[in-house]
Fold:
Amino acid sequence: MNVSESLASGDVTVPPAVSSQFQRIFVTLTIFTISLIGLLGNLSVFMFATTLKTLRNSFGRLSASQSLAEAVLCAVFLFFYCPMVLLERNTRVLIGLAYAIPCFTSLYMHLANNCLLPYVDFGWYFGVNTSADCDVIRYWIDFCKDFGVVALIAIVDVMTIVMIKVTAPGMRSANCSQTQKKRKREITFVKQALIQGAIFATELVFFFIVSTMQTKPVMIFLCTTVSWSLVHTIDPLVLILLNQEFRNMLLRNTRWRSRSTDEDDQ
Structure:
């Protein structure tokens, strides 16, 4: 069988064009900036969240725990993805670190069915081997499971808001300032959870559905790698923006450090 016959029968797979060094630099700078902000933001939330009075509760501990996990995810893209794309180094050590981070369930489901995560240069993203089993795992285990968890959290948050609104008239008649402050904090927590859930749901839709409709590498990159990195970067920023006490604490720490530096210089 000659080459023309092979192409006609579909037996030969034509590899995608290799991206230029300029494109690699642009992709690396984009993900490096997003991941660096996400890493710093998540570490700030993890280190300082439980020190605030308003976050000395189960919600604050959950936020700190989630921020630690997301800091690790941002660090993977910062220290693994960026050097790999820019320097074209794909060592076994880095691959081992990338596979060791996911939880056991996802790792087992993908490896047991040979659904690995190869790096695809056409779109600069981590893809999945195409097969019937991998498609099932990708849709049901990855997309539906994650989206279902986000939807369940959103339902609970909406029910919480409804309960707060229903009991609001009685609480106002009590005219207790401490109770009113506590309710405002609870509403802020619910808003935070809803916004974070909406962001995660949007990322899942872009990553698993919208990206499959794209043919241009830039659009694939935006729907996969950029959206995945952004969701873990925006998550701690939502907590910081909605929590005034947290913002004040960060500003105080920044001023104190700058003042200490000035005194040392003198």
About this structure: Confidence is low (pLDDT under 50) at residues 1-14.
